[in-house]
Every structure is written in structure tokens, then in C-alpha cells.
Amino acid sequence: MSSVLPKAARRGLADEAADLVRAAILDGRFPPGAALREVELAAHLGVSRGSVREGLARLEREGLVRGGWHRGTTVIEVTAEDVEEVYVLRAALDRLAATTARRVADEEHLSALDRLVAEMAAEAAGSGEAHRLVALDIAFHDRIYAAAGNGRLTAAWEAIRSQLHLFQLRRVDAARAHYRARVVEEHRELATLLRSGDVRTLARRAEEHVDSARRSLLAGLPPAP
Amino acid sequence: MSSVLPKAARRGLADEAADLVRAAILDGRFPPGAALREVELAAHLGVSRGSVREGLARLEREGLVRGGWHRGTTVIEVTAEDVEEVYVLRAALDRLAATTARRVADEEHLSALDRLVAEMAAEAAGSGEAHRLVALDIAFHDRIYAAAGNGRLTAAWEAIRSQLHLFQLRRVDAARAHYRARVVEEHRELATLLRSGDVRTLARRAEEHVDSARRSLLAGLPPAP
DNA sequence: CCTCCTCCTGATGTCAACATTCGGACAACT
DNA sequence: AGTTGTCCGAATGTTGACATCAGGAGGAGG
Questions:
Q1: Which segments constitute the HTH gntR-type domain (chains A, B) (predicted)?
Q2: Is nucleic acid strand D under 7 Å from B13's C-beta?
Q3: A91-109: pLDDT as tens digits
């Protein structure tokens, strides 16, 4: 996840399986509501059910899937209520992350943010895949949380990160032009404020940034699913 | 939790194991830093290693234990940095939960809060176990999150709830008299503000409530563990 | 005496088979 | 016809055995 230190931490098959399934969900190969059967996944991924099970538990922690007692695991739906919940929480988390990062971020993190904005600008100018722009968007906020250096805060962010990723992908489908036009400028402003801005202004802008995303997504959603 | 329908949700052995181990940690039978060996727990609880493993994963999601690749699972330490992280995040979450609950809470939740304050007052007057007072403290905030009705927000709260429980137990050890004296009044004020208070005042008081707890805990901790 | 290498021990990671449970199909009953 | 009770299939929950790995004890070499 764009960490500074690759750390080479050896991961188990459970993490591997979680990554594969997560990628499949974000790619749309598992549409919202799809059932994720353990035996099926185990056979397809070439690992045991135990590992798949552990990987699915991880995705459940990320909020990408939901499961119940003897009721299997399914991909979450994207209802207006879900979007509302995630974005309201994200606004509070982003506000805290931004104000904290404003205090403690070092130059390395700040320049990394500038670099990401530059990449976003290049990507938005071209007409490439929208997926890549969304990935850069998420990576930008990953950096802010990393800069804040609060492990629990980062964990809370990671608990909604994947859901947000899924939502943002729908957002570009719904409002592609609008998204491309504003995404670069909004992030550039955030990067500037993080380097040398008033804390209160930064807090307000961080919340507004989320609110902007929420509204543009809700506009393209069915009102009552 | 206090839903109209008890739902009688049947739980698996993993949940059972997680509950047992969590209780043991909060009781002090597993002190901070203690190693939680899977085979040992499995034998002692009378279940298989797989179930214990899944239960430990759940406790890891709650932040009560930490684990690494082939490095086992250990109870978290209580360092000043950990306390700082949890309370800073909690302040942001509590602020959001309180302001949301102020808008959407129904009478049932509000009267439940009053009832909890009354119980706390009765408990603080007597000289019973401090554990019970802390449990009521946590339950009070559980109610606020339930009243807010945001599932993701509640999940974020539950990710630090058990750690907070652990910290608060240390807090009463460190500053027992101070805690008893203030805990009832602070919660009573929060309950009042939730029923009919200015939102901005409520938000400020919610953050101050957390800050008060943080400082009184940090005061009784070793400076550099 | 210190350093490095090797091996060993105890633990976790992984697996495939067994037991339990949910949900719907089907039929009997009212 | 609508409802209730029963049965069956398929998926999950659980288990014990096997494979793999981290960390330290011990000894050879410097």
C-alpha cells in the first residue's frame, strides 16, 4: 500500500487470498450481492478452505463483504444509506488525520503528496482508465494517514478504505467528467494546506472534500434501493 | 444489544472463545505482554485450535492483542503512546456519535442513558468493585453509538472499545478517588446535552470528556516504558 | 571472550475430512 | 388455496494431523 518501507514482511496465504478476492470485487468480477462460496474460491485459488476463510474474515473487517452464522459471505450492496454512513465517518477521520498530519508530517511525506498530485494531473489530462485515477485518489489519502502516524486511526481508515474504493469506482461511472475536472484541484489544495496552511481552514476543507465526493456519488444512485 | 428483538443469534465457538479470552485479559489473568499460545488455550477451553485461532483474530480486530507472521499472539502493552492514539481517535468518534445522536436519537435511547447515569450514581456512592463502574461507563457510550445508528461508526468504536476498557481499568487503579468523583457528573451532563442541548456545546463537551479521561490516565503511567 | 554458524525445539501456518446448520422443495393437513 | 411440517441438498462450522517457520541453545572457529 505505497508504504515507504517495503519491509518484506512475509505474508501468509490468507493475505494472498484476501488480496485476490478484493481485487476481483473491485474489478467488478464479483458484483454487489454476489455470494462468495468458500469451496469455490478455494478450488479456484488453489489453496485450502481454511486460508480462504481467514481471508474472507479479513475482507469482512474491511467492510467489503458481509457474513452471518451459516449464511455464507456476500459482497456488500451499495445503497444510499451505506454511502451516507461511510462518508460521514470518513469526514470525521479525514479531519483528524489532516490536522494531525499538519503538526507532525515530515518533508518526505509532504513531497510524496506533491508527487501524487502530479501523477493525478498527468492521468486526468490523458484519457486512460478511470481506475488508475481512483487508485491515486485513495493512495493520496493513504499518505495523509501514514503521515499522521496514529496506528489506530490508520486502522479505522483501512476499515472503510476498500468500501470507499468501491464507491469511488461507481462515482466515476456516474459522474466521470465532473470527477476528472475537480479531483486534481481539490487534492492539490489539500496538499498545499498540509504543508503550510491554517489548521482550521484545513479541517474545514478536509470535510468539504469528503462532502463533495458524497454528494456527487449520491446524485448518481437510485433513491430507494 | 437491547434491541427489541433479542434475535437469539446463535454464535459459533470462535465467538465463545473470543469472549472467554477477552474476559480473562480484562480480569488481569493475562497481563499485558503475555503470550497467548493457541494449543494451550485450545486445551484449556476444550475447543479446537482452529476455533481459538479465529477467536484470536477477532480480538486482534478489537486491538486487544497483537500478532505477527509465525510470531504468535500477545496481549498489548499499555504505553503512553498507545493511550494517546486511542484517546485521540476516540475524541473524534465520540464527537461524531454525540452530534449524530443529538439529531436522530429516540426517547427509548435517551431514557436508557438516564437510567445508566442513575446506576452509576448508586454505584459510585457505595464502595463496591470499581470494575462495575467502568462497565457502566462503557455501556453509557455504547448507548450513544447505538443511538447514532451508524453501523460503520459503531464498528470503529468497537475496534477501540476493548482497549479503552483495559485502559479505564488501569485508570481507576491510578486515580480511583478522582475518577469516582467526576465520572457521574460528567456523564449526567452529557445525557442532558444529548436530550436538549446546543450541538456545538455538545461537541465540545464530548471531546473534553475524553480529554479528561486521557489526562487522568496518563498522569498515572510511567513516562518512558 | 566474542562471533558466527548449525541444529533443534516449540510454536504457528496449512490442509483435507467430519459434523452441523440453513433454506427451500415437497407433500400432507386444515 | 393457504398453511404447516418434514426432508434433502449444499454450504458453512469444526476438528486433528501434517508442513513450515522463528528464535534460541550449543559448539566450532577466530
A1: 11-78
A2: yes
A3: 999 999 999 999 999 999 9
